[in-house]
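=== Structural record ===
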Amino acid sequence: MKRIGSLALIAVGASLMCFGQSDAATPASTQVGATKAVGHGAFPVKLTKSLDSSKLKEGDAVEAETAASFKLPDGTLVPKGSKLTGHITASKARARGDGQSQLTMTFESLFVANGKGLSVKGTVQAVFPPVEEAAPLMAGKASGAAGGGYSGPTVGTVTDPKSGSNMASDSKPEPAADPKSTGVHGIHDLELGQDGAFFSGGKHVKLDSGVRMIVRVDILN
């Protein structure tokens, strides 16, 4: 009897161990509460504060505001001037022996009307000088991210918040507002990698307040 009892205990123990391994092996993506993208696209923004890789560190806050109004896939209107926030993920001034300085950022929250905040994952896709500098500098060719550019759909149509009509005056929008724009336009000694990282051969990467960017985002649930 003692022998039978011992065998039963061993069997129960083995069964519990199997359940534990199955639990631990459950992929995070199948667990309740896992985030996923519910929409994606690109839209124009401008920096509200200057950024300097010689003064910033990983984790420092970044803030921009939308440069045009547009609608999200669910019909929500995002007014011009809505806040987009994120943080610095890499910042490096060029030291002796280094080839380049670097600045990388990611965006995480988009605040729309009535203070509603959306979780996003945003990366810089294109960059342009501030409006007052655009005229003399826009003649420069784009550099940085190579390839065919962003081919996915935009988050929504850029519209006038009062009339709801398309704000573009012709079929070819200004590059700084075109969600398909990629790379660096009109800013010397600056490169943009496909992962949204800025590089410069200078001592630091500096983006002035008012610098315009196209940011591509995934909207998370």
Summary: Residues 139 and 169 are 21 Å apart (CA to CA). DSSP finds two helices and 13 strands in the chain.
